[in-house]
């Protein structure tokens, strides 16, 4: 029943672009799909584009942090790109700092970051 | 914790929260109202995020319930209020439930305490065995 | 007049107001002219006589109508027109920068037109006194609207000032800065911070500098806002440097027990810019602004 968010592969990077208001089950499915695809493709990086996302609550925030942790165990770096200012301000107020998740302003900068892995330390909690 | 309880307008809307889909619908409904109330983009985002947390609490911890939401007025200010009600197990220790990082359901434990920080008014009534009601309001600046 | 019983008052008042309506109607032209002259003498040409004449004529008719149907109950429905006219008058005066005196005179000068002489009958003197009290009440009402309008103007101006005083500027390709000047309150800090974060997106910059050289003091709330902004910028994938922290502010922040953690702070805006450019791997030895 629930739709799944498509996971695209570009070179050795997996790209997820979230375009709709996600329900919780879709978020959990995405987390599973990503882990499976990293292993299946041997990808070295994951970019999650949330440019279109209007809110990130603690559930989605936890998915982002968990995905980053899982992918790191599977030897892939995760970068979250395109977070809107209002979303960032709200997350800070909510008390979520997404420790360990690397972030970039745009998709392009995110891909760039994965190409040069040590250019920027991850956000600290 | 207490304070004057905001009363939604006569034309407030009620939706049931019984599935993940309903949580999405609750978010969208609150967003529509926040836009109509001309909340700033940041305030809209804060309110919708709080509504999302509370709707999920209603579903996961309260075993489902309803959300009533509408525009409210106080003096010359306009705001959006959302009231979440369930007849679930209630919250035995409120102080604990409102502590950052405490959870009974495997979440991050930021739902209640985080939602409280995101809104202007926050009231919570709970009784063990009978249910929980949380009302939140965000006022236009 | 105090201590009069309700019934007595209302009958007496009704007679007085009827008499006033009579006087004001009979001598409409001459009294209106006297009123106009009184007011224009005070305003000394700062408003055109024609305009003043129109305002006072409307007010005069509304006042007579009010007296006729509502007696002296100036807060009642019969005086809605009078109050509306006075409201408009004082709002206009407040916006055009007239003083409170210059505003109230339009109403209070109306008292003098029926000023009693030695030939005035006792009844008419009483009528005059009653009119005088009515005009005082209306004068106070006018001043209240005036004060309220001035308050609105002030709050609108402070909002504009807030907009003006928080420029977010692009210093280099990929580097934006907000130089904060003056006292920071919680509301202003929030506005600045939202603007700064939005500018990061709009300009595609991933280095931000908040320069607080011009800020004399911060309180806990403002310090928290600064801190939250830095964390929010990080969530968006940008780095924030705070520069120009004065010794007193550093002391406050430490005394308040606020953890600035791993936030980068620099003594001057120049140092902060150098730091930001280094992070963006700009070779300062070469000319040009490309990142």
Structural topology:
The complex is a heterotrimer of chains A (125), B (141) and C (291).
Chain A: E1 7-10, E2 13-17, H1 24-41, E3 45-49, H2 58-73, E4 77-81, H3 85-94, E5 102-104, H4 107-115
Parallel strand pairs in A: 2-3, 3-4, 4-5
Antiparallel strand pairs in A: 1-2
Chain B: E1 13-17, H1 20-36, H2 41-60, E2 65-74, E3 77-86, H3 94-97, H4 111-118, E4 121-127, E5 131-139
Antiparallel strand pairs in B: 1-2, 2-3, 3-5, 4-5
Helix pairs in contact in B: 1-2, 2-4
Chain C: H1 6-26, H2 28-43, H3 49-70, H4 80-95, H5 100-112, H6 122-164, E1 169-172, E2 175-181, H7 186-203, E3 207-214, H8 220-235, E4 239-243, H9 247-255, E5 264-266, H10 269-279
Parallel strand pairs in C: 2-3, 3-4, 4-5
Antiparallel strand pairs in C: 1-2
Name the features.
heterotrimer, A: 125 residues, alpha/beta, Transcription Regulator spoIIAA, five-stranded mixed sheet, 4 helices, globular, C: 291 residues, Globin-like, 2 domains, 64% helix, 9% strand, rod-shaped, disordered N terminus
Care to give the gist of this entry?
The complex is a heterotrimer of chains A (125), B (141) and C (291). By secondary structure, chain A is an alpha/beta fold.
Protein described:
The complex is a heterotrimer of chains A (125), B (141) and C (291). Chain A has 125 residues and is an alpha/beta fold. Chain A contains four helices and five strands; from the N terminus they run E-E-H-E-H-E-H-E-H. A five-stranded mixed β-sheet of chain A has the order 1-2-3-4-5. The mean pLDDT of chain A is 89. The longest helix of chain B is centred in the middle third of the chain and has 20 residues, at 41-60. Chain B is of the alpha+beta class. Chain B is 35% helix and 29% strand. Chain B is globular and about 40 Å long. Chain B has one domain (13-139): Histidine kinase-like ATPase, C-terminal domain (Heat Shock Protein 90, 2-Layer Sandwich). In chain B, helix 1 (20-36) packs antiparallel against helix 2 (41-60) and helix 2 (41-60) packs antiparallel against helix 4 (111-118). Chain B has four helices and five strands, in the order βααββααββ. A five-stranded antiparallel β-sheet of chain B has the order 1-2-3-5-4, covered by helices on one side. By secondary structure, chain C is an alpha/beta fold. Chain C folds into two domains: 6-159, Globin-like (Orthogonal Bundle); 169-279, STAS domain (Transcription Regulator spoIIAA, 2-Layer Sandwich). Helices cover 64% and strands 9% of the residues of chain C. Chain C is built from ten helices and five strands, in the order ααααααββαβαβαβα. Chain C has helices at 6-26, 28-43, 49-70, 80-95, 100-112, 122-164, 186-203, 220-235, 247-255, 269-279, and strands at residues 169-172, 175-181, 207-214, 239-243, 264-266. In chain C, strand 1 and strand 2 form a beta hairpin. In chain C, helix 1 (6-26) packs across helix 6 and helix 2 (28-43) runs antiparallel to helix 5. Chain C is rod-shaped and about 95 Å long. The chains are: A alpha/beta (125), B alpha+beta (141), C alpha/beta (291). The interface between A and B is medium-sized, with 24 and 26 residues.
